[in-house]
Write a structure and sequence with these properties.
Layout: H1 14-23, H2 32-43, H3 47-58, H4 66-71, E1 82-86, H5 91-106, E2 110-114, H6 135-146
Parallel strand pairs: 1-2
Length: 147
């Protein structure tokens, strides 16, 4: 178990404390130090390693990525900041990308798409019509992320 030093909260700015309290404390946690300890314990190899990770964070030598601090040691979300998903040049590939984004973003991940294989505007589709290119599909992704 990590030895928590609550006096380290004094090293945080008022804005940092408020942000951490509003967005990162879980359950009965009362101090950012408890969140740092939770995340350290979740990802450490052993108790000594957890203590070192906690000490580094509590001394502000580094800070956890948002999903690591938010979700580490909990049963919610993923500890991953960003996902880059490949988009296949087909209706199934594009709509599958929308579905995948919805699930991943609901678990706290940032989303990016690899759209380079989707045909450009004006090229022929498999049905013989002209492609609109990627921009209209990207607008759907943008709206999806705002929803």
């Amino acid at each position: 178990m990590v030895k928590i030093d609550y006096s380290k909260d004094s090293m945080l700015t008022d804005f940092s404390k408020k942000t951490l309290q509003d967005r990162y404390l879980v359950g009965d946690e009362k101090s950012p130090q408890e969140a740092f300890a939770r995340a350290a314990e979740a990802f450490a190899d052993d108790e000594a390693h957890a203590q070192r990770i906690y000490d580094y964070a509590s001394n502000l030598w580094f800070m956890f990525a948002t999903p690591v601090l938010s979700n580490g040691g909990t049963k919610r979300g993923l500890p991953i900041s960003c996902f880059l998903n490949y988009v296949e040049d087909s209706r199934e590939g594009i709509t599958g990308h929308y579905t995948e984004n919805a699930y991943l973003s609901s678990m706290g991940g940032g989303i990016g798409g690899g759209w380079s294989d989707v045909r450009s505007q004006g090229t022929k589709t498999s049905k013989g019509s002209e492609s609109t290119g990627v921009v209209p599909f990207m607008k759907v992704v943008d709206a999806e992320m705002l929803a």
